[in-house]
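Hi support team,

I submitted a single chain yesterday and got back a structure, but I'm not sure I'm reading the token output correctly. Could someone confirm the output below corresponds to the sequence I sent? I've pasted both exactly as they appear in my results page.

Thanks,
R.
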Amino acid sequence: MRPKSSKPKASAERVVKDIRRRTRRHFSAEDKIRIVLEGLRGDVRVAELCRKKVLPRVCITLGRRSLWKQASAGLQVTPFVPRPSPASVQ
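Hi R., thanks for writing in. Yes, this is the structure output for that exact sequence:
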């Protein structure tokens, strides 16, 4: 008989999870912004961009929403105040 190993075998699910974790791509913030802006420009359809970058469509859609939300939160809306005409200033 073979001696039993002291380490218990990892489950198949755990092995697959570890492999996925190691092979998952990590994009920098600059890359994410570049990809989302490329989709916002409208030169390329989102579906084509997804195929080119090998990304799921939901990643670009969520990135667009996040970018718009952050941009709109950073904008301050000021009320319109008409300038006086030069004739009325005299």
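A quick pointer for reading it: The two ends are 108 Å apart (CA to CA). Let us know if anything else looks off.

Best,
Support desk
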